[in-house]
């Protein structure tokens, strides 16, 4: 039996009011030129843990880029990530959720593109995982892989539509939970960020897809439905 997540199951449904958002610039880091910021929220008491978790996620990330690119220590990196412009963000007094694209490049020309994401309960700052929305990890990956498989060949994105390859797709990890691990929870639906080369072959990069709560609701667990009721 899947372990019950207190982040998703123990939060009562309630009417949630918007929080005020601010975006603070990332501090200077050695060997890193950053065009980036990170989300902070105000509007109710007790947001210290939430803002600490948000700051930690985004301010620590540039230091991991060299490892992602297998670069030697001290390699100069240009790091791009503007949550205030390019991210999917939803904030209220029950949940804070963000999905932000990142692009980083070394002076040698190595490039990596990926997603940073977190969904936190307020004020506990407990992280909500994709598996918290569905009856089990298997149910989550099965439900989402089926939806994505049916939608990708008909994508509005010309690169995705033109690059769709059933043979390539059949070899990918459709049912791996980390395929759907980067997401934001919004009133419009569940927005999932997909990795470069994960489901669609190059030259397409990272991309995101939105799944409405209407299409997901029949597949979701009670604890996931309670989270959605707070949006």
TrEMBL record:
InterPro entries: PdaC/RsiV-like_sf
Name of this protein: DUF3298 domain-containing protein
Source organism per UniProt: Micromonospora tarensis
